[in-house]
Amino acid sequence: MTAQLTGSSPKPAVKPTAKSKAPGRKKGTSILVTGILVVAALYFLAPVYWVVVASTKSTADLFATNGFAFAETFNLWHNLSQVLSYDGGIFVRWFLNSVLYAGVGALLATYIAAAGGYALAKYKFRGANLVFGIILGGVLVPGTATALPLFLLFSQMGLANTYWSVLLPSLVSPFGLFLCRIYAQATVDPALLEAARLDGAGEIRIFHTVGLRVLTPALVTVFLFQLVGVWNNYFLPLVMLSDTKLYPITLGLNNWLSQVNRLPEFYQLTTGGVLLSIIPLAIAMVVLQRFWRGGLTEGSVK
Amino acid sequence: MTTPPTRTDPAGAAAARPGRTPNTGQRGSGRRTSAVERAPWLLLAPFLALFILTFILPILAALLSSFTKVTRSGLFGEAGITSKFAGFSNYAQALADGNFVASMGRMLLFGVVQVPVMIIMATILALLLESASARWPAFFRAAYFLPYGVPGVIATILWSFMYVPGLSPLIDIAGWFGLSPDFLGPSTVLWSIANIVTWSYTGYNMLIIIAQLKAIPAEVYEAAKMDGASPVKVALAIQLPLIKPALVLTTIFSIIGTLQLFAEPQVLKTVSPAIDSQYTPNLSAYTTAFAYNDYNVAAAQAVLIALVAFALSFAFLAFTNRKSS
């Protein structure tokens, strides 16, 4: 498919403005490339469009009309109020749980990973390489491999089926520490730290005033990674939680979906719930994707 | 919320002490030195404590329990539980389970097809978006990346509506052409799952590749321009070799992800009878642990999954390194 690039402006410029200078001859290529991009966009957006349409339909229309076309009756507000009020507003609770697990978890995880990465980058101490090596191994361990034994461990500690059982594992981001260490090595100037020391600032204080500030771009990346990771996590809460009141949104919606075979009205609850849960993330993705680039490839395997 | 750090501080302080003692007498600025020596451990303490709790201990526990056999005496285990060293018998039992081995094979087949398709798609989209011919690159980039923010469970719920006869607009549309695709049958459902995974992660991989493309210095393009290289030539001869690290990284992440596949088949199971409780290795381990309550064999399965993921990642790394040298 790369052949379709033929004839486009010779320099694959980073600046999109370059195309304004492209002569008319390149117009065909531009249309072809854009056409491919549009087809790909249709693929990625079609299911989202479907759920927007489906959540405006009544259960009868859902099955009677084509999924990509709106029905005559507009049922969106009724469906959404059903979603929000069903079972005493359990959906809102699931949503807030997700915000707690992902938001608070990612925030603390970023701080903890920054402190660790900064320490490993800016101090020479015995055991530093060993500690880093072990943590690096943690990046490669599949998350699901630890979930089962973690459940057994937490059961013995009486932590299973509590908020802590999902929140505590969400506070650890080996990948985040890895990124922060690389970034701190490259950007935190030792002279700046020495100057702060001569001013009589304590080591921990220096980290908070100098280190965190310089690390900010990396922190945004780590935070976003962890936020999406925890928000999307399914296996860990599934293993840990049995009380539906503690469920994050993923588990809750799956709980609704599993009832559609017996009770068809759960189709409406599920589609409405999916729509409501996608909206904030869609906004977040669109707004934050430009922050996503920094540090992504710094950790790449060379 | 502050519990973890405060709880772990004593451990960090204790860990720092042995390092401090030998130095205090040697230098005049002993207090200063000890503070500098204690600081990294203080900063690392919260991470290390949580890392030990949620990584090291569970991994050790899994290893230990995979080599242990628990026997309950009495009809319901009321006469006590004894556990003893079992050697590799749990591993033997896991590997003798035809369904578990078959699920591994299924994931290999899945990975051999899905991972290249996804990485090639991501690479092409990245190259097109970074080419001068693309219009509205910011909009397309956001549209492709959006599915990454949709949790696997919700992505699967969405696509399951696309697959279920009666609901699916795709089957309706295919019907106009006299086709009746079955997305949930025994021979097709694996590729329906592959589609969900591709939908979810192509945009994410594309962004990693774009990040690497943006890192290519402008002089390289200038030189190619001087030589009169066509855009296709630039893509194949310059861009592809230079983004190799990103391609290796995304491929390894995808291999590990494939072996961990769980949410998609588990959710799709509700609508597709073709997916059994041991469809993927992780689903198998989950079933062994929670349906059969055999934690020891489940632990052996989890260790085997991790080992296969490691082995495949390193094999792939070795393969790419050999090819480039």
From TrEMBL, chain A:
PROSITE patterns: ABC_TM1. The keyword Ubl conjugation does not apply. It is found in: Cell membrane. Residues 1-26 are annotated as: Disordered. It holds the Pfam family BPD_transp_1. It comes from the Bacteria. The chain crosses the membrane at residues 31-52, 99-121, 128-151, 163-184, 214-236, 266-288. The keyword Cell membrane applies. Keywords: Cell membrane, Membrane, Sugar transport, Transmembrane, Transmembrane helix, Transport. This is Multiple sugar transport system permease protein. It comes from Arthrobacter stackebrandtii. The lineage of its organism: Bacteria, Bacillati, Actinomycetota, Actinomycetes, Micrococcales.
